[in-house]
Design goal:
- Helix content of chain A is 37%, strand content 11%.
- Chain A has a three-stranded mixed sheet with strand order 10-9-11. A two-stranded antiparallel sheet of chain A has the order 1-2.
- In chain A, a hairpin with a 2-residue loop joins strand 7 and strand 8.
- Chain B has 109 residues and is mainly beta.
- Chain B has one domain: Sandwich (Immunoglobulin-like).
- Chain B contains no helices and eight strands.
- In chain B, the strands form two sheets. A five-stranded mixed sheet of chain B has the order 2-8-7-4-5, with no helix packed on it. In chain B, strands 1-3-6 form a three-stranded antiparallel sheet, with no helix packed on it.
- In chain B, strand 4 and strand 5 form a beta hairpin.
- Classes of the chains: A alpha+beta (288), B mainly beta (109).
- At the A-B interface, helix 3 of A face strand 1 and strand 3 of B.
């Protein structure tokens, strides 16, 4: 199995050389590999940038910026360490909790019933009058329908569950709405994206728009797409939520960061998600 | 027994006689090294899986000693020659005495 995958990765490189394009290993930028998960789910890792993006023509999944060893781990669910946590979420999905004596399954049936949800998140929740992320929907279910305790935004249970919700949408195109009632939040997120923070005075755009493909110290900068979140990071040996990653980035600019789950990060999540409209949902992905 | 331990094994359902197949195994386990301290500064006791054995029809295929530096959720991928139909047994031994087992049958033809 591994041999076949390695061959596919090599053949992608050979193909570009044959076409006279710059070989993937010769310079910065995304490589030319194709992502197919479980030899079944074809993932779009490159697409024309959505119309709202002014400075980028083509969007790439972060998978294209990773090394072959890391890429291969995401091509088979047995090799993807995140699937351990998805398994745990399936157990939680079927566990009755709270005063109403319900589990997720009591209302939703199979996790597959949520297929498509991840592709649209975050989205406007008309009942609540604000933009909702997966974490907010999960906690509303827990507190209002199940009568159970809310999970922490960044808690292990929550990350497992959002990974499960994402996993059933893999392969579907990200399609986040940025107009209508969500527009105000989206504008706020865009402002944060282009604002320089911290002692290093770096905005998201300075790295992920102006310099993707280049190295920042030992890291190969991607476009900072979040279609692969929640993601299994090898350095953490665990699943990482989007907001945790946002916090890490802003901390690295030597700034005081926004909190995980804050309205600022929800807005930023909406804006960054919209920059990936057209890529496939990949989460839970594997990154370094 | 450590929490949330679940063995996973991937073996082809069938093979040709004498074929070399690839086996993948993964067990979810914290693999606490014994080197870390908790938030109060007290050492967290070592709790790892210290041995993994795969056997085919009673014959040992692989026998691995595991040490504290091995990461959480240890994953092993190895090859085995299948001379005949039979059963692969997989056994993991925990520091605390727990033994986790899985069995996969394979047919030949």
């Amino acid at each position: 199995m591994t041999t076949t995958k390695a061959f596919k990765l090599v053949s992608g490189i050979a193909l570009t050389a044959a076409l006279g394009m710059s070989p993937a290993l010769a310079g910065p930028g995304p490589d030319e590999d194709q992502l197919v998960i479980n030899e079944d789910i074809e993932i779009v890792t490159e697409a024309a940038a959505p119309a709202h993006m002014e400075y980028v023509d083509t969007i790439y999944s972060g998978w294209r910026f990773r090394e072959d060893d890391t890429q291969v781990m995401q091509m088979d669910d047995f090799d993807n360490p995140a699937m351990i946590y998805v398994d745990k979420a399936i157990d939680a999905w079927n566990t009755v909790e709270g005063a109403e004596e319900k589990s997720c399954a009591s209302c939703h049936g199979d996790p597959e019933s949520l297929r498509g949800l991840r592709a649209e998140l975050p989205k406007w929740n008309a009942d609540k009058g604000e933009v909702y992320t997966a974490e907010m929907y999960v906690n509303d279910c827990r507190t209002e329908r199940m009568g159970a305790e809310a999970w922490g935004w960044n808690g292990q249970d929550m990350r497992n569950m959002t990974a499960l919700i994402s996993s059933v949408s893999r392969g579907l195109p990200v399609n986040v709405a940025i107009d209508g009632p969500a527009q105000e939040t989206w504008e706020k997120g865009k402002e944060i994206y282009y604002t320089r923070f911290g002692q290093l005075e770096l905005s998201c755009a300075n790295c992920h728009e102006d310099n993707y493909g280049n190295m920042i110290r030992a890291d190969h900068l991607s476009q900072g797409q979040i279609n692969g979140f929640p993601t299994y990071r090898l350095k953490d040996a665990n699943i990482v939520s989007m907001h945790n990653r946002f916090r890490g980035c802003i901390r690295d600019t030597r700034a005081e960061t926004f909190s995980v789950g804050s309205p600022e990060f929800v807005a930023l999540e909406l804006y960054v998600a919209s920059r990936g409209n057209g890529l496939s949902v990949e989460g839970p992905s594997v990154r370094n | 027994m450590a929490d949330g331990v679940k063995p996973r094994v991937k073996v082809p359902k069938s093979a040709a006689a004498g074929e070399v197949i690839t086996i993948k195994t993964l067990i979810s386990h914290p693999m606490e090294s014994g080197q870390r301290k908790d938030s109060d500064g007290n050492p967290i006791p070592r709790s790892i899986i210290n041995r993994f054995v795969c056997a085919f029809n009673g014959e040992t295929v692989i026998d691995i000693t595991m040490e504290p530096a091995i990461s959480t959720n240890p994953y092993f991928e190895f090859e085995a020659k299948v001379p005949e139909a039979g059963e692969f047994t997989f056994t993991w031994y925990d520091d605390d005495g727990s033994v986790y087992e899985d069995v996969k049958a394979i047919s030949v033809g």
